[in-house]
Amino acid sequence: MIIAIDGYSSCGKSTVAKAIAKRLKLNYIDSGAMYRAVTYYFLQNNIPFSKTADDVVTEYTSILENIHIQFIRNEQTGQSEIYLNGKNIEVEIRQMDVSDNVSYVSAIKSVRKKLVVMQQQMATMGHLVMDGRDIGTTVFPNADLKIFMTASPEVRVYRRYHELIEKGIKVTPDEIRKNIELRDYEDTHREESPLRKPDDAIILDNTYMSRDEQVQFVLDAVAKLKKAI
Ligand code: DC
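^ thats the input. predicted complex w/ 2'-deoxycytidine-5'-monophosphate below
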């Protein structure tokens, strides 16, 4: 079974996706972490990229060949963690410099092409839950279940702020709000696979829902699906 969860930044996609994966014994893949890993590599290696659609274009093919991304399970936490060229970069990819640039890097056609192929290959290893922006539209257009998540901007800022503070990352609510607004705009306006609700997705607006209610919402959708088969 493939479950695709798409939606805006900071509306709790990964929290729900992880819980569903655990309940249904599926693999969980955070596709946003993969775009963040490429962005981190670009920043570390001073690879130029454009912040406007029609600005400088670099040939990225050979650069992308040097980028190797893996998810490896942390036996202590039970969570899978992202590695870039053999180094664990779970903490690095959540820093604000990555968040502030990831929408630009993820708009690059060759970056998307490479990551979409990798994501599709992950499905050949079995059943999975993947969250992101184009999972139900581009990566797995035939996913068994598609969920499109959304929440009010205020709730998203509040949740992301607390999540980062808990991880020890210094930010202000205002920085978070600006970053979320920027990414919403860039993610929905880019030329390549912009964020949009897949026509056959179920909307999950979790503004007033607890984590358990959201998980139950998706489990109910899976149960309905199984009945229908
Ligand atoms: O899920 P996230 O906030 O960690 O994602 C980081 C960025 O990566 C997001 O602003 C847009 C990009 N992204 C994407 O373009 N396509 C995906 N499938 C997942 C993320």
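The pocket of 2'-deoxycytidine-5'-monophosphate is lined by residues 9, 31-32, 35-36, 102-103, 106, 132-135, 183, 187 (CB under 6 Å).
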